[in-house]
Amino acid sequence: MNATDVDPLSLAIAPPPDETPAERAAREFAEAEALRISNEIDEQIRKERENEKKKKRPVKLLLLGQSESGKTATLKNFQLTYAKREWIAERNNWRAVIFLNLVRNVNYILDILNREMAAASLPSPEYIGSSDESSDDINSSKPRLKFKEKHRLLKLRLGPLRRIQTDLERRFGATAIEPQSTTVTTAAPFGSEGPESSRRTLNEFSINSRNGWKSAFEKLRAMRAAARAEGNDNALRKLQETDDEIADVIAGCRDDMNAIWEDSTVREMLSRGKTRIEDSAGFFLNDVERIAVSNYEPTDDDVIRARLRTLGVQEYKFIFEHGRTAGQEWRLYDVGGARSSRAAWWPYFDDVNAIIFLAPISCFDEKLAEDRRVNRLEDSFLLWRSVCDCKLLSRTQLILFLNKCDLLQAKLQRGVRIRDSVPSFGDRRNDISTATRYFQQHFKEILRQSSPVQRPFFVHLTSVIDTRSTAVTLGAVEESILRDHLRRADLM
Ligand SMILES: Nc1nc2c(ncn2[C@@H]2O[C@H](COP(=O)(O)OP(=O)(O)OP(=O)(O)O)[C@@H](O)[C@H]2O)c(=O)[nH]1
Ligand SMILES: [Mg+2]
């Protein structure tokens, strides 16, 4: 061998030339041991890195439940509690939605007023009151309503709000229109039937993430930015003018809006109908004084109470600013809850950390807007069963919000009896604690029947328009999801 062939490193670690067999065995053992320990350390480091990565993976949370169950309101509470900067930046965008909600309240009353005034102008025996099943049924056995000149004037002066409603609805597109019918006849067009059935029904409703409020706000922001970038002062002014004009028209109608809502004949007319407008989504008539001003700025509560339905599945990414998971990315998926929208949920079941399922329990005597034959509470139970039965979700943490407890309490206090709509409730006490216990038991029983493997489950009684108590509930939700998230990271 010539000198250049000698590898100095091999030479340095080569065994001594006079090594005895015993020394050799001891050396080889020590080397093997050192290698084993080194490999173990490498493996530990690799695992720790992997776990760190897993822990940093976004937490995925899906909000499910029927339409108007409070999913979007819950999402807003998350944003208000954990991503306040973003919330504040977005708060003013809700102004137009709140205006739309308010003018809809007024136009709804005007519609009934029109109908009833027309009916009342007929000769006495023919006036039997309107008995339109689909809308408010004014009871004909009650004394005749007496409309006066002031009602005609109110109708006239509030007329411009029709155009405002049309303008705002055009701005928000399909998301501003509540569905009145559907061809979907099952509560869960996914579940055990799997993605095939989802695909079949998807043609009725395609996933379009550009449809939500976020997209509507972004469109507006983009239009403003484009006008600004182009130096198109005209376009910018027009956009601003439209907003200002809407606020001015609404402010101009302030006294008449108050007058129509305060009018005793109108109140009597509304109370004879089936729907209580004050319990409906996006009701703002008690806040006219504050909202119908040209420089109105929404409060946190206004934004939570504003109603704009969700279409498709909307993804919201938040880096939490507070809480135990500060700095952690959360992905919240807010879905459209109407029956025709539910087929779009399926693809989001995969790889989700937890589901918040919202069941509005005040709705025990109400029907679905999209299918007037279906009781809302029954629909919630059917939907819950399908979610619990879904194999893809068999290990997913389920968090049940029995929501709208405030409305339930008010309804029971008004004397509405649960057993008239839910016969199995029987002769139990018609109070909030008995009712929530009863409904909760039913949901738990369904979960038990549908969970061969025990899974993390939590239930909360909520009124998600109450931001303070909801922040406390969300703290508990964050904690339980985080614990599960870390446990999975360590186990996997
Ligand atoms: N009083 C009361 N109102 C609530 C409660 N939760 C939600 N709301 C209101 O009910 C309306 C409907 O709530 P959303 O959050 O829009 O319902 P959703 O489940 O997102 O409905 P979709 O988008 O159609 O699926 C909104 O105006 C909410 O402010 C509650 O606990 N109490
Ligand atoms: Mg929604």
Automatic annotation (TrEMBL):
The keyword GTP-binding applies. GTP binds at D279, S280, N403, K404, C405, D406. PANTHER family: GTP-BINDING PROTEIN ALPHA SUBUNIT (PTHR10218), GUANINE NUCLEOTIDE-BINDING PROTEIN SUBUNIT ALPHA HOMOLOG (PTHR10218:SF360). Mg(2+) binds at T310. It comes from Lentinula detonsa. It comes from the Eukaryota. One of its GO terms (biological process) is adenylate cyclase-modulating G protein-coupled receptor signaling pathway. Keywords: GTP-binding, Magnesium, Metal-binding, Nucleotide-binding, Transducer. This is Guanine nucleotide binding protein, alpha subunit. Residues 1-24 are annotated as: Disordered. GO terms for molecular function: G protein-coupled receptor binding; G-protein beta/gamma-subunit complex binding; GTP binding; GTPase activity; metal ion binding. InterPro entries: Gprotein_alpha_su (IPR001019), GproteinA_insert (IPR011025), P-loop_NTPase (IPR027417). Pfam families: G-alpha (PF00503). One of its GO terms (cellular component) is heterotrimeric G-protein complex.
